[in-house]
Amino acid sequence: MHNLAIALHNKGYQVTGSDDEIFDPASSNLAKYGLLPEEFGWFPERITKDLDAVILGMHARADNPELIRAKEIGIRIFSYPEFLYEQTRDKTRVVIGGSHGKTTVTSMILFVLKKMHVNFDYMVGAQVEGFNTMVGLSDNSRIAVFEGDEYLTSPIDPRPKFHVYRPHIAVVTGIAWDHINVFPTFENYVEQFKIFSDKIERDGKLIYFSEDENLMKIAENLRDDLTAIPYNAHPYHITEGKTWLETKSGDFPLRIFGKHNLQNIQAAHVVCLQLGIHDKDFYTTISEFKGAAKRLQILNENDNCTIFQDFAHSPSKLKATVSAVKEQYPKRKLIACMELHTFSSLTAEFLPEYKDSMKDADEAYVYFNPKTIEHKHLATITPKLVAESFGGKNVEVFTDSTLLLEKLRSMTFKKKNLLMMSSGNFDGVNLKAFALELLS
Length: 440
Fold this sequence. Notes:
Elements: H1 2-10, H2 26-32, E1 54-56, H3 65-73, E2 77-79, H4 80-87, E3 92-97, H5 102-115, E4 121-123, E5 135-136, E6 143-147, E7 152-154, E8 157-160, E9 169-172, H6 186-198, E10 205-209, H7 213-220, E11 227-231, E12 236-239, E13 242-247, E14 250-253, H8 259-274, H9 279-286, E15 297-301, E16 306-310, H10 315-328, E17 333-339, E18 363-367, H11 370-375, H12 383-390, E19 395-398, H13 401-409, E20 416-421, H14 431-438
Parallel strand pairs: 1-2, 3-6, 3-9, 4-6, 9-10, 10-11, 16-20, 17-18, 17-20, 18-19
Antiparallel strand pairs: 4-5, 7-8, 12-13, 13-14, 15-16
Helix pairs in contact: 5-8, 5-9, 6-7, 8-9
């Protein structure tokens, strides 16, 4: 939301906003543009007919006093995705969906388009090198590239966000059950992607990962006016710890790695071809791409060890990330740590989905905070249940982050890699500082 506020400010709009609490980096970023509220809280008296519109964040409550006031006086209310659609109604919209990889694929497309001096609007869920904000809107672009999240649109609109964007070019990277609190069964979750494909504009295109059985079924049953374009992992090889793309124009070195990223590159490649980017330009540019923030991001390294931070938290993301690091560094032991932090991951019914997701690690540590479970009003889970759900003899479970950090501090990181995975931060740990400490 704060990125959208900055984007609209940069476009020339007069923007105000409110929240009950604002943390960094949002706080510092808003202050930089003079958009940080002078006081926190809700002020319905400030909602007047002078406002053109109210944009409602997903985490607002349905009984928010400012929202109630906006309804009472008839101000037009947009959800976040509705407003992005409204701003790009007359543009070619590219929307990247999927249970995993959508942030990276979106980031790759943005990176290439910018390097090729193409004007575009965008929204992406992570910081990308060369971009000051995660949202960009302008009057002189004909293309909009959005990351398409399947989570709920707003507290008064239960549709998945990516149903709102109505893409001309849609990408789905894969379907792996997530958000159990919203989609209680896998079949219900898959149905959201079928609906997404039905929302593609007339004569549009669906670009999909060809090795996903559920996506294949969706592609086989598209409307007659739509074109289905399958893709899989781009051909590659690894030489002396570096991944190279194999192309008709020769081999191109990459700064990223992992089979999942070779799938992401191919998805971005197909999209860029649809947008008029030539092969050679794409490959030359993508070889400079360092990845999106918190996606196999290097926190610290030396000749014997690399410490990574990754956003992986769902089973499919976890498995892909662990496998990628092991494949890239086969001669190093892999210590993999992950935090159960989301609603789904802390639910007993969902935990079996994690079976064997960390089997490629030499040592695997899983952490969860029992207080987080209480905060989310979930049923209690035990370390034993978590260990049995993950399976394998390499898994150890912690419920105290201090003990986990002590365990890692006791290790010698020689010919070892460390992978820290979470959508949270292991209860406030400064992972960058911790990585510097471990290799000091």
